[in-house]
Amino acid sequence: MSKLNERGVVAAEFAILLPVLLLILFGTMEFGMLMYGREVVTNATREGVRYGIVAQTPPVSGATMISQATTYITASGLNIADVSFDPPVCCGATGTPVTLHATYTYHWLIPYLPAIAGLPATLPISITTTMRHE
After folding, report:
1. Which of 43, 58, 89, 120 is the most exposed place for a label (fewest CB within 10 A)?
2. Between 66 and 94, where is the model more confident?
3. What pLDDT, in 10s, does the model give residues 113-129?
């Protein structure tokens, strides 16, 4: 029995599997960047609230709490324009909750990925941190 000419079979198989492999690769990268941004904003809200609960002269203004959170985000390299803060809820009495809410808008690194996967063009992520005043 003679072997048939199989030239080009590997190239055809590669062409079929390449889009799937690229989707998995870039999807993993996007998910990692999304989680990184979420964690940075979560830690920023923690920093802001922590500043508000340990301040020596309560009550601390909401602007200083947001300023602390903004400084943390800027130092991380995340685009501060993608993060918006609601006015913090704070009170000066010991044991009362101090809350800071932020909304992080994630913009996809790969612009065609949301269209392929059926996702929205931007993804808003809501983060709220609450701690008791010391």
Report:
1. 120
2. 66
3. 788 778 888 889 999 99
Tokens of 57: 């002269």
Strand partners, 127: 102
How would you write the chain as a 3-class SS string? CCCCCCCCHHHHHHHHHHHHHHHHHHHHHHHHHHHHHHHHHHHHHHHHHHHHHCCCCCCCCHHHHHHHHHHHHHHHCCCHHHEEECCCECCCCCCCEEEEEEEEEEECCCCCHHHHHCCCCEEEEEEEEEEECC
Cα torsion at 87, 93, 95, 98 (round to 10°)?
10
Give the Cα separation of 133 and 60 in Å (integer).
11
* pTM for the whole structure: 0.81
Say if CB 41 and CB 125 are below 8 A apart. Answer: yes
What crossing angle do the helices spanning 62-76 and 9-53 adopt, rounded to 10°? 150
Mean pLDDT of all residues in the chain? 86
